[in-house]
Amino acid sequence: MSFTNKAYLCKMQQELQLSDWLPTTNKEVKIRGWDSLDVILFSGDAYVDHPAFGPAVVGRILESYGLRVAIVPQPNVNDNLQDFEKLGTPNLFFAVTAGEMDSMVSNYTASKRKRDKDAYTPNGDKGFRPDYATTVYSKILKEKFPDIPVVIGGIEASLRRVTHYDYWSNTLKPNILTESGADLLVYGMGEQPLRELITLLQKGVQFDSIKTLKQTAYLSDFKEEVPENKQWEDIEIHSHEACLRDKKTFATNFKTIEQESNKVFGRRILQKVENKTLVINPPASTMTEKEIDASFDLPFTRLPHPKYNKRGPIPAFDMIKFSINIHRGCFGGCSFCTISAHQGKFIASRSKESILKEVDAVANMPDFKGYLSDIGGPSANMYKMKGKIQSICDKCIAPSCISPVICYNLDTSHKPLTEIYQAVDKHPKIKKSFIGSGIRYDLLVPEFNKNAEVKELEEYTEEVMTKHVSGRLKVAPEHTSDPVLKLMRKPSFSYFHTFKKTFDRINKMKRLNLQLIPYFISSHPACELEDMANLAAETKDMGFQLEQVQGFTPTPMTVATVIYYSGYHPYTLKKVYVSKTKKDRDEQHKFFFWYKRENFNWIKNTLQKVHRNDLIEKLLSTSNVYRKGKSQKKNNSDSNRIHKKSKQNKGYTSVLNKPKRKKR
Question: Which of 574, 582, 486 has the alpha carbon at shortest distance from 527?
Fold first, then answer.
């Protein structure tokens, strides 16, 4: 931890009392004068009392109902398990979450290698969060306290709420309730069901009788009747055992799961597993402005717990402490993304007043230098966007509002967002506010976004480029192949070309000298080696040497993961090509780095086998590279300029700037 950062934390924490954080030890419980606890929350993350950290939000909501709440962050599972017993038995229930990320995504890379760092642990230290953390914590608690209910939530529990493929074990797993032994699962963003659960318990309703709570799931005995709810319809999907027997059967389930999860009025999903029935109640309504504001207005200290002062900074906190989250949800529905499965398809936006209130709180932090790192959300530019006629949305079953085309009923106006940016920048202590969240560039292309006014899109793009970007604007076309993009639920790459023209024009007109940085994915279902070669050739022709690239990682509750495991598209049940072996995945990824000399012979041999000498010429011809470089200079295309120094810092070898060989 730097001296400045450490001094700042100490100063802030000295102005607060230890009791301003939720208690984490018996000593802290006694400071509050409590003789017992109502809820004890176990988390795979270090405790950061900030609205961007789910465990803190859960704890503060429970506290707001007058409950005595404690949190046990990153309990040790490798000793005598005293962390699970040190605070005793709660009066109501244990709450369990793996943290802000699925523990397997947190612990492993796309190639299944152990990560070197954990962003949610002090100093980035690894090894403080077990694999399958929700299951591990819940099993320990049920063994030690068999009569106390365990409620699980967070992204790991949420996305594993039904039969799912687990990439890291390469197995088809049942729902996480079956594996963990937990009593109730709260899926998605849990504020609404959590508030209702507490209200019922405080009215004296017995925990085991709470069966019709929206956005929750539980296991029922096979012979037990599922409680009636006159407002809900039921739909039964194929059993877990049937999914184990047949991959195509597993694929057919997902269409129902995704559609029901994204409906305004979803059906209750039932699934047989072993000798029980999994019951997934319909999702709650999209949070109102008042409801989402309430979550951000809770009395957070906005700081890590003082217990971490000597252990080092928490990387995830350092990344977001000067950022503002303005909305939740994403209507993109990308096939590889879990946002809509967890946060929902419909956008829940905060009020302008709530946003500016938080901006003021951040601006008055002692070490704030005037720069907000982000004003955004899952996608930066979806704030306040919703259906123009709600009754049309009420009947919709589409998983995406913008694929294959933008829904005619979707209000895609960027004006409210532009106004938020401008209001934030008027704050006397704000020197500059950056947009660090990913921007949906396709929503800024008039040819694609026909719902919006051309002038308005131009104004937003110019606002972002001139006032909210520091050197680089990052967007995510993901691929260049139209068939792959269609499966991804992303628009044609031709729209990226169109957006780049607008970007270059504004860049030149305003003399900004910005770079456009595109993100791409390799080894996505439907992507073959030749598609990656075409991607490399097309992006090279545009002047890019790709940096922001990743290999596809199958995670639960996505269309792409279902295809990866089963080989079938869940909506068409047609077979889809999937790159699965390490060799195939590594080879696809190599095409991103056509400019590395060690890849030249491999690229040449690979493309010769598929008779694509034209691509060999495009990718490996030095003269072609130099010609393109001169053309870029002539056209003054600043967004494509290659910065030799930054590439060397990242360990890349640039063909354009390759050193001359020394004579031996």
Answer: 486
Quickly list DSSP for 568-635: B-TTT--B-----SHHHHHHHHHGGGTTSGGGHHHHHHHHHHTT-HHHHHHHH-HHHHHHHHHHHHHH
132 near 86, Cβ under 8 Å? no
Residue 659 CB partners (closer than 8 Å, separation 6+): none
Contact at 8 Å (CB) between 379 and 440?
yes
Residue 186 in this model has a pLDDT that exceeds 60:
yes
C-alpha–C-alpha distance, residues 105 and 561, integer Å: 14
Specify the domain boundaries for CATH 3.40.50.2300 within the chain.
3-280
What is the 3-class SS of 145-201, one letter each residue?
A: CCCCCEEEECHHHHHCCCCEEECCCCEEECCHHHHHCCCEEECCCCHHHHHHHHHHH
Cα gap 204→198, rounded to integer Å:
10
Structure confidence by residue, pLDDT tens digits, 295-352: 999 999 999 999 999 999 999 999 999 999 999 999 999 999 999 999 999 999 999 9
Q: What is the chain's length?
A: 664
Q: Is 535 exposed, middle or buried (0-12, 13-18, 19+ CB in 10 A)?
A: buried
Specify the fold of 471-641. Transcription Regulator spoIIAA (3.30.750)
The pairing of beta strand 216-221 with beta strand 150-153: unpaired
Rounded-to-integer distance, Cα 77 and Cα 257, Å: 33
> What digits encode the pLDDT tens for the residues 227-241?
989 899 999 999 999
- CATH 3.30.750.200 residue ranges of the chain are 471-641
The per-type count for the chain, helices as H runs and strands as E runs, is 26, 22
Residue 279 three-state SS = strand
Token match 């060999």: residue? 616
Contact predicate 38/90, CB 8 Å: yes
Question: What is each CA distance from 525 to 161, 250, 330, 466, 547, in whole angstroms?
Answer: 23, 17, 22, 37, 21
Percent of the chain with pLDDT over 90: 88
Strand partners, 432: 371
Instruction: Choose among 290, 286, 227: nearest CA to 261.
Output: 286
Strand partners, 194: none
Q: Say if residues 456 and 415 touch (Cβ distance below 8 Å).
A: yes
Among candidate residues 49, 224, 42, the one with its CA nearest the CA of residue 133: 42
CA dist 282 → 97, 150, 183, 260, 340 (Å): 21, 21, 18, 8, 15
Question: Do 314 and 122 meet the contact criterion of CB atoms below 8 Å apart?
Answer: yes
- 70-104 pLDDT tens trace: 999 999 999 999 999 999 999 999 999 999 999 99
CA–CA separation, 160 vs 155, rounded Å?
A: 8
CA 487, 529, 581, 552 torsion-angle sign: negative
Average pLDDT, the chain: 91
Q: Is 234 helix (H, G, I), strand (E, B) or coil?
A: strand
Both structure tokens of 462: 């110019």
CATH number, domain 3-280: 3.40.50.2300
**Distance separating alpha carbons of residues 198 and 91, to the nearest angstrom:** 12
